[in-house]
Design brief:
The chain contains one helix and eleven strands, in the order βββββββββαββ. Strands 2, 4, 5, 6, 9, 10 and 11 form a seven-stranded mixed β-sheet that branches. Strands 1-3-8-7 form a four-stranded antiparallel β-sheet, with no helix packed on it. β5 and β6 form a beta hairpin.
Length: 127
């Protein structure tokens, strides 16, 4: 099984976009899921994290900012909404799933490695 991201594309600055991560084939409630992005020449950045069972959400530095993560357990999907899109948001957005409980996994997006990764979806923001 592998997460599958959809919803990327070309968008204008100032707009909003919702990406979706499908986890069909997973026991959704047993996993912690997170969204990441990686812009060209930059390190991968963790954006938001969610508990597949409880729906509890976590954001780096406890600030949600322009990113909102939410889930639909019936459909086994996790969405990431990005508001007020900026050119600097141009990146490949990926989701990852991990067996580790969210209150531990969401403390550190980088280590240890996540169990499962999607291939990513490209978001390009233009003026």
């Amino acid at each position: 099984a592998q997460p599958v991201e959809t919803g990327g594309g070309l968008v204008q600055t100032g707009g909003s976009l919702t990406l979706s991560c499908s986890l069909s084939g997973f026991s959704f409630e047993d996993y912690t899921i997170a969204w990441f992005r990686q812009a060209p020449g930059q390190e991968r950045e963790g954006l938001a994290c969610i508990d597949g069972g409880s729906g509890a959400t976590y954001y780096p530095n406890s600030e949600k900012g322009r990113f909102t993560i939410f889930s639909n357990s019936a459909e086994k999907t996790v969405q990431l909404r990005i508001d007020s899109l900026q050119i600097e948001d141009t990146a490949v957005y990926s989701c990852a799933a991990d067996w580790t409980p969210s209150h531990l996994r969401c403390r550190d997006y980088d280590s240890p490695p996540w169990d499962y990764w999607g291939r990513g979806t490209q978001v390009t923001v233009s003026s």
